[in-house]
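task queued by scheduler; priority normal; single chain, no ligands, no partner chains; default sampling; output format set to structure tokens
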Amino acid sequence: MDSMVKETIIISLGGSVVVPDRIDEEFLKKFQHSLNGQLAQKRFFLFVGGGKVCRDYQKALLDFGADNTDQDWMGIHISRLNAQVVRQVFDKQAFNTVLTDPTKKVNSRRDIVVFGGWKPGWSTDYCAVMLAKNMGIKTIINLTNIDYVYEKDPKKFPSTKPIGQISWKDFRKIVGNTWKPGLSAPFDPRASKMAEILKIKVVIINGKEVSRLEQFFAGKSFIGTVIQ
């Protein structure tokens, strides 16, 4: 099937999935295998985040007086480092450089295109939504380190209930409207507001459980949250 008629899906790949404490090569191998199984029908734009490593660096900068812009640039640099690793995982299937600007249309015919962070004020979630807007894409998969969206933070409220499906209106009540560098949320509040306006569906899946991603691709029930 020609790549120009394939369905294009955006994946926002959390940095904490790629680098929980060190680069998780086993996960990356499983992730590559999973996407390879879809390339006859689909192509993928991957936005790679900074994750916990990013937040550790940003905290150190903050302790020494860094402002939001300085912290953002640190996140951008780490996101790009992570993206370089992910791009190499797919090797010749991927576009030969990591892209950063989501406001430009992607002209590559490669089945995998990898993005890193762009500029201060733009999380990788927000960049993913902006590319979806510019390319007319209606589905974003957010691979993160949680099983579901919850009504409250399950670390603080162990009895909180998981949510399988939720509207953007109700989801935004949970995450609020304010974004700051290093924010850890199922999906960035600013990105959520834009996704609601654009009627984009976002699927939250625990990236470590690659079989759940494959169940979603197959149209089967899966553990995760659908926001739309």
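post-processing summary
- The two ends are 29 Å apart (CA to CA).
- Residues 3-227 form a domain with the Carbamate kinase fold (CATH 3.40.1160.10).
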